[in-house]
Amino acid sequence: MTQQPLRGVTSLRFNQDQSERGLGLYPCSSDSFHPPGCFCCAMETGVRIYNVEPLMEKGHLDHEQVGSMGLVEMLHRSNLLALVGGGSSPKFSEISVLIWDDAREGKDSKEKLVLEFTFTKPVLSVRMRHDKIVIVLRNRIYVYSFPDNPRKLFEFDTRDNPKGLCDLCPSLEKQLLVFPGHKCGSLQLVDLLSTKPGTSSAPFTINAHQSDIACVSLNQPGTVVASASQKGTLIRLFDTQSKEKLVELRRGTDPATLYCINFSHDSSFLCASSDKGTVHIFALKDTRLNRRSALARVGKVGPMIGQYVDSQWSLASFTVPAESACICAFGRNTSKNVNSVIAICVDGTFHKYVFTPDGNCNREAFDVYLDICDDDDF
């Protein structure tokens, strides 16, 4: 996304406990696990870390320590952060990823910077799991062992990827990496567990869309991948083993920029946010809950409108400020038939909505997270 940062926010990211993915002031990728989790806020004034439920600031790194930040990534609820400089007054370079270990003793920030990965071009995104770190440049992706004695395991050339799109499955059983393929609209999947470092394997490609990929997301076990193109009207889900298309979800008919796609922890639902200011919620486990076009009841229709009739529309939706990009993920279930979605916006607002399988959706909480302060450092 190319808009100017609001209230000094340059990127937002959920950690893997809430969702692996986020928003770097670009459309990004995502998926959600066992709530509650955390989210990281990279700012002109440093870094702030928040707990999602209940909403509270867990810590911060101020401008004197880290300067203005472009990207921040948190490894679960550990003491490790990946930092990339950015904004108007960076202390660190945009071509380097620095690993901050808050468990290290000492007040000097240099003592807490334990690793550095430096490249020749800007770093666009970073993904971490318990044993690997993935660093995305515009035309290349690097995979390193992590955090002990890091060494380069893989290096992948990619299609022009100005948004740094990729997703990494955090599952212990599956180490799947997905990113835009060389062919326009395609996805490339790599199993990092079965692929041997230093060897080339046959690319596992899914032809997902006709135009360039704008958003991509894996579910928690890595069995399903969801993607949207730059057009932003459809979200398509594919089986990562068979490459078979599982379902096609329609966000709308007007083009839009998708910021975030996220699965619920059990893959029963999916949520998505866009520059239209609407967060859509789709049913995946029981797709009969999704809305259909009224024309679907008419019977056979012409080819021009057939694509709209066949699509599934969201079972529920809610709005956030349209001028403010946001990330979204599923929150804590309040009861068996009541689920919740959290939306975090770059204008500093926090939104929580609850929804039921019949499509009722109501706001349960609203706050301004940037106005919540914690006197302690991270």
From TrEMBL:
It holds the Pfam family PROPPIN. It comes from the Eukaryota. InterPro entries: PROPPIN, WD40/YVTN_repeat-like_dom_sf, WD40_repeat_dom_sf, WD40_rpt. SMART domains: WD40 (SM00320). Keywords: Autophagy, Lipid-binding, Repeat, WD repeat. Its main location: other. It is found in: Preautophagosomal structure. Belongs to the WD repeat PROPPIN family. The gene is WDR45. This is WD repeat domain phosphoinositide-interacting protein 4.
